[in-house]
Specification:
Elements lengths: L4 E2 L15 E5 L3 E7 L2 H4 L8 E3 L3 H19 L6 E12 L3 E3 L3 E12 L2 E10 L8 E10 L1 H9 L1
Antiparallel strand pairs: 1-2, 2-3, 3-7, 4-6, 5-9, 7-8, 8-9
């Protein structure tokens, strides 16, 4: 796969729940994605001021980790796997919302992986800004089969 790449083939998410647009770099332990807060993608999620509440950054960060997993599924010629977002710890942000046309860079670094469970340190920053990240979190995810996921959702 040539980078940068559209993430649509790497994520099980479909609009209006696919929040990231582009995978810009990936290796065994890190991932970087970008997205733009645009009306087409985020319309159902915007607040009364037509801004995206900062709490959505947690899902944007989780989808960045999912893009990492999807990339490795595709690179190893495996079907796209399903995953569960188990926890978010230490979420911090200096903003309350993101205005339209904000261009974000989201980075993740794997800090531990045990079989199908992995923990990533993630951060968000502005693409055209050399300032420090304005949001960060520690996310834990777990790969699960589509069949087991369907069973869990029935309960």
């Amino acid at each position: 796969m040539t980078l940068p790449a559209d993430v649509s083939s790497l994520l099980p998410h479909a609009p209006p729940m696919r929040f990231i647009h582009t995978l810009t770099s990936v290796d065994d332990a890190t991932v970087t994605c970008e997205t733009t807060i645009d009306a087409d993608t985020f319309a159902p999620h915007l607040d009364e001021h037509r801004e995206l509440p900062a709490a959505y950054l947690v899902e944007i960060m989780a989808q960045t980790v999912a893009a990492w997993a999807g990339y490795h599924d595709r690179a190893n010629k495996r079907p796209l796997s399903s995953g569960l977002f188990l926890s978010c710890r230490h979420f911090q942000t200096r903003i309350s919302s993101l205005p339209l046309n904000t261009h974000l860079r989201i980075q993740g670094a794997k800090i531990i992986q045990d079989n199908l469970t992995a923990t990533f340190e993630t951060q968000a920053s502005l693409v055209h800004d050399d300032a420090a990240p304005f949001a960060s979190s520690t996310l834990t995810t777990h790969q699960i089969s589509w069949e087991r996921l369907a069973e869990l959702l029935k309960k």
